[in-house]
Amino acid sequence: MNASADRSRRQGEAQCARTVLMVRPATFCANPETLATNPFQHVVNAPGAAMLAAAQAEFDAAVEVLAAAGVEVVVAAAEAAAQTPDALFPNNWFSTHADGRVVLYPMAVPNRRRERRPVMLASLAAEHHWQVAQTLDFSGLEQRGQFVEGTGSLVLDREARLAYASRSARTHDEAVVAVCTALGYTPVLFNAHDQAGREIYHTNVLMSVGPSIAVLASAMIAPGAGLRGVFDALDQSEKQLLDISAEQVGEFAGNLLFLDGGAQGPLVALSRRAWASLTRAQRVLLEQHARPVLCAVETIEHVGGGGIRCMLAEIFLPQR
């Protein structure tokens, strides 16, 4: 075990959260302000009320599935007046940490910045007895045009203190380094592109890290120092690799999250669409490390451009 991982364990930093926050959408569509950078979004010609109802139904079903699997799910409501169609993806604007710190992140477009609701988060912390020791607010980096969108941009190996980050219009080196320096993480930066040559806009599209396994679309990472750095970091942290294809990334197979299911044991939340894209061998390998919990979020994936991982903001804050 490396020194940073050993220190992390002594401090009680687990890789998997027992509790997640989910934000129920009040508006829903393919966000026009992010269409240029998110090829997973699709504009659908359908009444807004019908699209919202479909997204809310998928959201409610996902809450039930995760709760039944042993996850503690806290649900908050989005603000309809704020007109934030991506509010159901709260992992992009904040993260929490076992030492009681909360991080607020700089977001690339104006309507996503309106998703930041520190007052709501403080209210939930009081209600659920979460201890917040410090809030680190990096939103000021927006004025410099520097962005890092939470655990969309940063795939965190909390035990090994590594932060994987794919450079993009939403993930800038300076912002990544600023957050990593404050939290005591080592950044692992790289470039990645899809089959059309477009940069991967969020790292959690092609990568997820669990306690003993990492899911990664390694072929999408540009050859060279960046790819070597990723493999070196995975070796250092002793993660078994489940390598997925670019086609499987297109089915949200990289957008999954390992969680603590309490008495029911470790689990991995992924979408029904993602699971269907995996080969039998990949499924067997994944099941050796965690129990798959499948969520049917096809409308949210197709229109919103984000998967079940994006819908889950992990709560690592200690109890009072």
User: What composes the largest sheet?
Assistant: 3 strands, mixed
Q: What's the structural domain tally?
A: 1
Mean pLDDT: 95
What is the number of beta strands?
A: 15
Biggest sheet, spatial arrangement of strands = 2-1-15
Q: What is the helix fraction of residues, given as a range?
A: 25-40%
Write the layout of secondary structure elements.
Elements: H1 3-10, E1 19-24, H2 48-68, E2 72-77, E3 94-96, E4 101-104, H3 110-113, H4 118-128, E5 134-137, H5 150-153, E6 154-157, E7 162-166, H6 173-183, E8 186-190, E9 207-209, E10 213-216, H7 225-236, E11 240-243, H8 246-249, E12 257-260, E13 266-271, H9 272-277, H10 280-287, E14 291-295, H11 298-304, E15 313-315
Parallel strand pairs: 1-2, 4-5, 7-8, 10-11, 13-14
Antiparallel strand pairs: 1-15, 3-4, 6-7, 9-10, 12-13
